[in-house]
Amino acid sequence: MAEQPVPATAREWHLKARPNGWPVPSDVALVEAPVRLPEPGEILVRNAYLSVDPYMRGRMNDAKSYVPPYQLDRPMDGGAVGYVVASAAEGFEVGDAVLHGLGWREYATVQAAHATKVDASKAPLSYFLGVLGMPGMTAYAGLVAVAGIKPGDAVFVSGAAGAVGSLVGQIARLKGASRVVGSAGSAAKVAKLVDDYGFDAAFNYKDGPVREQLAEVAPEGIDIYFDNVGGEHLEAAIGALGVRGRAVLCGAIAQYNETAPPAGPRNLALAIGKRLRIEGMLVNDHAALQPEFTAEVAGWLKDGGLRYDETVVDGIEQMMDAFLGLMRGDNTGKMVVRLDA
Predict the structure, then answer these.
(1) Which of 23, 44, 64, 330 is least buried, going by the fewest C-beta atoms within 10 A?
(2) How many contiguous H segments (helices) and E segments (strands) does the chain have?
(3) Residues 194, 218 contacting (CB under 8 angstroms)
(4) CATH assignment of 9-130+309-338, given 3.90.180.10, 3.30.565.10, 1.20.1260.10, 3.40.1280.10?
(5) CA separation for the pair 55, 78 (Å, rounded)
(6) Residues 141, 293 contacting (CB under 8 angstroms)
(7) Pairwise CA distance, residues 320 & 31, whole Å
(8) Residue 162: which of 141, 135, 142 has the closest Cα?
């Protein structure tokens, strides 16, 4: 196929300053930059959807982590899906839909080895950033591989209306959990967890101490805690977990914008007597699960066993607003920015 005309320049977001606490708009800038045609082994992608994820906040800090920090005055990156508009790589043709890691920009010149073709006829393209992508795989691997979920387990999920949490609760139910409970940040989200996602109960963590509300919805305790929040939620879960309970540490969004050390959990010593297993997880460690994950989740989507929601924001100029909205909890399900509005 012939290469399509591409613009000489396009927009991309650069980090201009490292945030102190909550990011502010002046920490970033939307700039016009040259579009580079692909060299051998590369493809040029016109991005259609950009992923907005909590981990991006950590990359704004100049701190050692499992992914390198964003560099000042350089483009930021993250998950994206789009269409190949020029190819200098074997196996990729103009028009192919691809998933890659150079988001926060309209056009991306990507090494073909770092791009994955996806079948846009199987699901909406944006789903490959969510339920069929990193968040879905995180939920699945966290429950199956890290927590080792078994039929009859009682499961508590924090941040349960988000991209990962909403899938964790549903997958737990599909895997035979005896009870699934979750926390969220509004009455509407709490209702959605129960009415749409099939949680047995949920609570608004803003309504009172998490420990007390968790005891009300899970009076017999829990076997698995899937942590997207940290802090008070983790402390409450440690208290509620039974003997040989498992806590999966996926995220700690309550701490991402704090400038002081967290106050808790203050009851970690309980983990000794209860013989708890508290394990952090990174989704990239579980690539071997990909075929099983894709087959099982695609089947659940097809037969209606799994519900999936997105919060879609239109326009690359809204990317930072969408990111700040994610930090505030404005989203239900996966947050994405659509460029093909």
Answers:
(1) 64
(2) 9, 15
(3) no
(4) 3.90.180.10
(5) 10
(6) yes
(7) 13
(8) 135
Q: Where are the domains of the chain?
A: 9-130+309-338, 134-284
Q: In sequence order, what DSSP letters do the residues of 21-63 get, joined into one string?
A: SS--GGGEEEEEEEPPPPPTTEEEEEEEEEEE-THHHHHTSS-
Question: How far apart are the C-alpha atoms of 201 and 187, rounded to whole Å?
Answer: 12
Alpha carbon distance 174, 179 (integer Å): 11
Q: Average pLDDT per run of 10 along the chain, which is 341 residues long? A: 76 97 95 97 98 94 88 97 97 97 98 94 92 95 98 97 95 98 96 97 97 98 96 96 97 69 84 96 93 92 94 97 94 92 54
Contact by Cβ (8 Å): 104, 50? yes
Helix axes 290-303, 165-174, angle to 10 degrees: 80
The reply to whether CATH 3.40.50.720 applies to domain 134-284 is yes
Q: Which two tokens stand for residue 32?
A: 């016009």
